[in-house]
Design a protein that fits this description.
With about 240 residues, this protein is mostly beta strands. The protein has two domains: about 190 residues, Alpha-Beta Plaits (2-Layer Sandwich); about 30 residues, no CATH class. It has four helices and 13 strands.
């Protein structure tokens, strides 16, 4: 359990599109239904100006929890790559039974299926080594590069940094005002760190070891989810 009085970094993760996949290789790129720890570490490392071959050990040592304020809708983007004008050819073939049939194939290219969360909004909390937290907050306030939520096609709709606060990280996440809510009368889901064997816990392979192009690797991270009453919605200035 987290200590009751810790420095907590709160994030707003709100965008037209977000994508938090833990398997970005291949032609089918999926997304989780909430932000991944590896995606958040990558977000902060990018804000700090780090390259893929630089260590993220300090950021990966932080603790991470997330609240789903608006779950959004799953969207699939179909793309073709390496073709002339994305042309799909219709090839004729014969089945074992001798029946003629047709199959659509790409001429000299491949199909890509990219999944996104459309219209989602989350609130996230990070806690751990305070110097790392302060450096992360400073980078998110003045990022070295443009920020995006999972993929470069997903710029944030609101400032990501919600500030540094002191208190119980989980309690703060449960009650901190939301940027917006899907239903103010409905409970919201909170996902927090867990341990192996914890009832209701599960493993996610989103604890990053290396972001290198050819050496990307992850460890399992144990989490559990539960519901809490909806928090208030923040009042716009």
């Amino acid at each position: 359990m987290p200590e009751p009085d810790q420095l907590v970094l709160l994030l707003r993760l709100d965008a037209l599109l977000q994508s938090w996949g833990t398997n970005a290789q291949g032609t089918v790129k999926t997304t989780l239904n909430e932000p991944s720890f590896s995606g958040i570490v990558g977000l902060i490392a990018n804000a700090m100006g780090r390259t893929r071959d630089q260590s993220v050990e300090d950021l990966a040592a932080l603790h991470f929890a997330v609240r789903t304020d608006v779950p959004g809708q799953l969207m699939r983007d179909y793309q073709t790559a390496g073709t002339v004008g994305g042309i799909i050819a219709r090839k004729e073939y014969t089945t074992r039974g001798g029946t003629r049939a047709f199959k659509d194939v790409l001429e000299g290219g491949k199909e890509l299926h990219k999944h996104y969360l459309a219209g989602a909004s989350f609130t996230a909390a990070l806690w751990g080594e305070e110097t790392v937290m302060e450096a992360a907050a400073a980078a998110l306030h003045r990022p070295a590069r443009a920020l995006y939520l999972g993929r470069r096609a997903c710029p944030p709709a609101v400032p990501v940094l919600a500030g540094l606060h002191r208190g119980d990280p989980v309690r703060m996440l449960e009650t901190y005002p939301a940027h917006r809510l899907a239903d103010p009368a409905a409970p919201v889901k909170v996902t927090v760190p867990s341990v192996p064997g914890d009832g209701g816990g599960r493993a996610q392979f989103d604890h990053p070891l290396d972001f290198g192009t050819h050496t990307r690797s992850y460890l399992p991270r144990y989490v559990r989810s539960y519901q809490v009453p909806a928090p208030p919605v923040e009042v716009s200035a």
